[in-house]
Amino acid sequence: MGELDLVDIYRKLHPNTKAFTYELKSLKLKSRIDYFLVSNTIAANTKRAEIRPSIAPDHKAIFLSFEIQGEFKRGPGSWKFNNQLLEDQNYINFINSSYPKILDKYKDVKSKKLLWEMIKMEGFSIEFYEAFLDLLGGNLLDCYNEAFHEN
Question: In the chain, where are the structural domains located?
Fold first, then answer.
């Protein structure tokens, strides 16, 4: 979590509280399987983090409240992979040449799912896509129309 600048905010605010978000009464099993992982920047603005009863018989709800003062810097937002890049030989060559570098950088990551997320976050696809748009003039709608609607 430290590498990603994340903190378990409930544990930070309640370091000595014993609370559970999952309970299977028939087996007398309790666990805290639900977490709020937030960046350290957001952690500084966290007012409350609570575990509350819910309508689910075996899970509890988690509640988080922020108090944001002043301007709040937003991140880059979400990005969705453009599957059409998989048909572009230049993109395929780009990924094939970049992949060994990515694997080396994240060689200690054991989880395949986490590795995939790290590869996506690495930005190689975003950089390639933006360069592709620049080559076509930079306007996404114009690029789309040129690629798919004009003969």
Answer: 6-66, 83-148
